[in-house]
Amino acid sequence: MLIPIITVDGPGGAGKGAICKRLSEHLGWHLLDSGMLYRLLALSAINHHVETDNEPALKVMASALDIKFQSIAGQDGIRAWLEGEDVTDALRSEDVGLAASKVAQLPAARSALLARQRAFVELPGLVADGRDMGTVVFIEAPLKIYLTASVEERANRRYKQLLDKGQSDTLPRLVEAIKARDESDMNRAVAPLKPAPDALTIDSTLMTIDEVCQQVLDEAAKRGLF
Ligand code: C5P
After folding, report:
1. Atom 16 in ligand 1: which residue has the minimum CA distance?
2. Could you tell me if 181 and 192 are in contact, meaning their C-beta atoms sit under 8 angstroms apart?
């Protein structure tokens, strides 16, 4: 039986995490947060003092990563363990995000993570969140979404998230950080961030999470995915 997959790609801060979590809960499908895999690899490199451009070492590390995921009802996102330690909060830091986008530029590290990502495909279905889910990892997916939002709106969302966590930053700095990450993700040689030719683009700048989810669910229903 063909296992249905919905891919959601797009730049950081477009709302992919919240949308994918909501969709997977609503449908009762599995959830892959592929960014978390890149963040785990980056954190492992930092912990073991491996440079983020050491491709041979990162390839070996990516194949051998000792990780565990758990989705906790009522909480946003997934919790992750690296070598037995709950590293969920550490993974969200800007430093780890930046290191993740560096290791993500290495073809050998990316291909070492492919099998791990594909292993998430299980009945009754999968919602896959990332940058290249529809263009590389699951090109056969019957529904591909490219979720985007303006840089200013994404910076605003990040600003509010930081405030909620008791941290702070300035909006202009967040705008710069987001632009830098976009630049690195969209212009890298391997698996650059771009919409798949058959993707449906949704601009979430003026939309609520509910509205985006509803549009994706309507599209999935139209295509007979559930
Ligand atoms: O989505 P998140 O911000 O957690 O991803 C962290 C970094 O991992 C991204 O900036 C991107 O460089 C990389 N990534 C990727 N391919 C994916 C998911 C994330 O290259 N499928």
Report:
1. 131
2. no
Give the whole-angstrom CA distance, residue 68 versus residue 202: 31
Binding-site residues, ligand 1, Cβ < 6 A: 12, 34-35, 38-39, 97, 100-101, 104, 130-132, 181, 185
Q: Which two tokens mark 57?
A: 């070492």
User: What are the strands, taking DSSP E only, across 149-191?
Assistant: none
CA angle 168/147/166 to nearest 5° reads 15
pLDDT, greater one: 97 or 8:
8
Q: Which stretches does DSSP call E strand in 115-223?
A: 126-130, 143-148, 200-203
Q: Structural domains in the chain?
A: 5-210 (3.40.50.300)
Alpha-carbon distance of 194 to 182, in angstroms, equals: 11
Q: Work out the percent of the chain whose per-residue pLDDT is above 70.
A: 99
Is the pTM higher than 0.90? The answer reads: yes
- pLDDT tens for 187-208 read 999 999 999 999 999 999 999 9
The total of other beta-carbon atoms located within 10 Å of residue 157's CB is 18
Alpha carbon of 123 to ligand 1 centroid (Å)? 25
Contact call for residues 61 and 159 (beta carbons, < 8 A): no
Q: Which amino acid is at 77?
A: G
Let me know: does 61 contact 48? Beta carbons within 8 Å.
Answer: yes
| pLDDT reading at 58 higher than 80 | yes
